[in-house]
Amino acid sequence: MKFLCLILLIALSVSVFSPAFSEEESSLYVRKIENLPDDFIFGMDASCVVALEDSGVKYYDFDGNEEDVFKVLADNGITHIRVRIWNHPYDMAGRGYGGGNNDIEKAVKIGRRATKYGMKLIANFHYSDFWADPGKQMVPIAWAGMEIEEKTEALYNYTRECLLMLKDAGVDVGMVQVGNETNGKMCGEKTWFNIQYLMQAGARATREIFPDALVALHFANPEKADSYATYAKKMDYYKVDYDVFATSYYPFWHGTLENLSNVLTDVANTYGKKVMVMETSYAYTAHDTDFYGNTISDGGAIVKSYPFTVQGQANNIVDVTNTIVNYTPSGIGVVYWEGTWISVGTNSWEENNEKWETYGSGWATSYAKTYDANDAGKYYGGNAVDNQAMFDENGRPLESLKVFKLMREGNKIAPVADALEDVNLICDLNAPLSLPETVNAVMTDNSKKALPVTWNLTDEMDKTMHAAGPNQYVVDGIAGGMTAKAYVSMIEYNYLTDYSFEEGGKSWVFTDLKNADELYIEDKKTDSLTGTKHAHFWSAQKNSVEFTLEQTLDTLTAGKYALTASIMGGDAGKTEIYAYVKIDGDIVAAAPMSITSYGNWDTAKTDSFLYEGGESVTVGVYVKCEGAGNGAWGKIDDMMLNSVK
Ligand code: CA
């Protein structure tokens, strides 16, 4: 956050010297990127274009005229086209695996068109018959079973032949990527010792055929501590010949821009390498347009740094570019993945499915199961990133496509509200629901502004939400003419911290009143009521178990509450066990508990008690066991302090 604020301040401080409007009018808010080199690489992965066109997709320019998408890209500041190359993405019957069916022939077609409009090609060799990423780096079928020497030779020859085909076709190859997201695996190899031979072979072929092209290695997950330093060190140790250390950066998964800058800066400074973002993207909408679910949509455990709007998509590109240009030495470019991959149709899943299967325009076809049975073979279908494209479902360019050119001079129009931040609330079923009076609008410059909101919450809805038990609700509202959403979880709220000991039990205190052998928080799922941890006790000697397990609350609002606790155990003999609540040292509520045998949890709930304020509230369990046989033992779990009506 601090980092982003700094970027914003710098941008604001120079705005005085920038023209207020660019020559080309646009509704897109874009701040000027200072120090942006003339030869900075703005790349677009366009791997699926041919398969999409085969499926009937048409692209348009900003005037609404049908146009070669490569011309549209070039006209809007794209300098490089990236294309993935799979060795042989076809089954025995010649049916494509999908994802564009991108073999070298496709790369030649795409490369020629890129060259025609003055753009260079980034040839992205996966060295696999289908998708290669950190999760899978499968060897091409034709190379299966090869020892590393033979595989190295095969990879060298293959790369050489492919590059010669591109050269013969007159394609202007600016960069060759040797492997895709090779985080310690590549082409079926799993040791850096073997991988480095393969990387060397790809680099050697590139130097021979395109001596002026840059050799890039590509990694993913910059957020994993020290991983990039390790990869770069390995490359250095093995003296792998490369120019560019490239990374994927998806802001919803891959950590902060500050971290991205740090890890790339470290590589650039330590090893004298160029660095770049080889893949980034952002969703312009939460909606799916092709009847095949998307990897990024509302909900899910992702970081949402920008709203899912056209402006949000542009803001990601601006921030990533600024990070690479101004906060990362030797930063040479940013490539978007894959802005031209749009829906093949908006009529029906059946109609689209036929196109995906026939032309390979979805991410995988059913035929891919012959190669990748566990992933593609199960989940094959359409486009999972159509909401991250820079063209809409009808092939019209989004305003965000103008961002690449606009970053040079900026388009600092007055920021306006672009979207509303969602409100997320947890409400106790027994407490009133209070919705906020304002919601944050995310402005087009990604700043926040509080707007008054009117919620559509009737008394009847409120009553139902409190009466229906634990449940999730969405309450709509209106703020600044836009629809606000409050996601409300009605729950039986537990006022205790670390109620199930999953956080390690630091909020809990064992007090040994005799001399038990073992009193601690144990991590053992099979002995826990929920989660994996619980409070454990055991002692071999008779009459050695007597203890309390307590938590003292910092704050509690006045009201009626009840305590629930669960216990199980064995070999206890005669016992005295109870859950209790103390206010200022006096027990105000208690519930007896008993131990029988393994797996038989006894859950006890105290009567409700009234808390009107006081110095302290302590909840706990008192356990005293005479012990029998091998000594008393037991487990305590899931302590709940809930409010009561
Ligand atoms: Ca989709």
Report on this model:
The longest helix has 21 residues, at 148-168. Strand 2 (80-85), helix 4 and strand 3 form a beta-alpha-beta unit. Helix 5 packs parallel to helix 6 and helix 7 (227-237) runs parallel beside helix 8 (257-271). The protein has an eight-stranded parallel β-barrel with strand order 1-2-3-4-5-6-7-8, surrounded by five helices. Strands 17, 18, 20, 23, 24 and 26 form a six-stranded antiparallel β-sheet that branches. Strands 16-19-25-21-22 form a five-stranded antiparallel β-sheet, with no helix packed on it. The chain has 13 helices and 26 strands. With 645 residues, the protein is α/β, with parallel strands linked by helices. The two termini are 42 Å apart. The site of calcium ion (CA) has 8 residues, from loops. Calcium ion is lined by residues 288, 290, 292, 294, 382-384, 386.
Number of strands: 26
Radius of gyration over alpha carbons? 31 Å
Given helix and strand content, the structural type is alpha/beta
Ligands, ions, cofactors: calcium ion
Identify the strand order in the major beta sheet.
1-2-3-4-5-6-7-8
Helical content stands at: 10-25%
Uncertain stretches of 5 or more adjacent residues: 1-23
SS field, number of helical segments: 13
Write the layout of secondary structure elements.
Layout: H1 2-14, E1 41-45, H2 49-54, H3 69-75, E2 80-85, H4 104-116, E3 120-125, H5 148-168, E4 173-178, H6 192-209, E5 214-219, H7 227-237, E6 244-248, H8 257-271, E7 274-280, H9 310-326, E8 331-336, H10 349-359, H11 376-379, H12 403-409, E9 417-420, E10 423-428, E11 438-443, E12 448-452, E13 454-455, H13 459-467, E14 471-479, E15 482-491, E16 509-512, E17 518-523, E18 533-538, E19 545-553, E20 559-570, E21 575-583, E22 586-593, E23 602-605, E24 609-611, E25 617-625, E26 633-643
